[in-house]
Amino acid sequence: MSADPMAYEAQFFGFTPQTCMLRIYLAFQDYLFEVMQVVEGVILKKLDKMPGCKVSPSQVRKCTEQFLLFMRDRFDKLFGKMEEVLLQLVLSIPENVLLPEDKVHEQFPYSPEQFQALQEEIRQLQLQCRAEAAAEQALRAELEEQKVVKAELEKILQWFDDFEKIFREQGIGSLRESLAFLTQSSKKLQVVLKEVEQKSEKLKLRDKLM
């Protein structure tokens, strides 16, 4: 059997020419085997009607198998020539013939180099699309995080508004002034605490020396 895949012919016929030839070959083999069985049956019937015949059915079977092998060998040789003729002259499409669905290639021909460049361009576009999809997904995730942060900030602002409202009701003043006062007081306390710690260290050192 031919090893050429004949893909263009398969596109036109709907099957590969090699598959067609293989089916013809197998069909003939099956037909030849069936014919040999019929011939063997006829021979055995004829022998039964011949008195004194010393030919046994096993001998007839042996002769039938030998003749079948001979016929198969002859057929294989003839089939090889028939296959070559059919594949070249009947089941092949000439190189100058284009199928209707491939007419577009005649209008827009591409060289192998141009086709390779087009493939590379498609590959780059695919990579770009994947990168943009990944960037879009990252932006969506960032927007979700910003929504969460915004909600937390709104809670904090609301808390400050409520806090400032309480300060006003108590006559304490504005929240900014109160926080500024608390900050200054905290810094003064830190300075005083540091001075106390320093004096305490000096007293401890004096006690050790005494």
UniProtKB/TrEMBL annotation:
Residues 115-206 form a coiled coil. It comes from the Eukaryota. It holds the Pfam family Mis12. InterPro entries: Centromere_Mis12. Keywords: Cell cycle, Cell division, Centromere, Chromosome, Coiled coil, Kinetochore, Mitosis. Its main location: nucleus. One of its GO terms (biological process) is cell division. GO terms for cellular component: MIS12/MIND type complex; nucleus. It is found in: Chromosome, Centromere, Kinetochore. Belongs to the mis12 family. This is Protein MIS12 homolog. It comes from Sclerurus mexicanus (tawny-throated leaftosser).
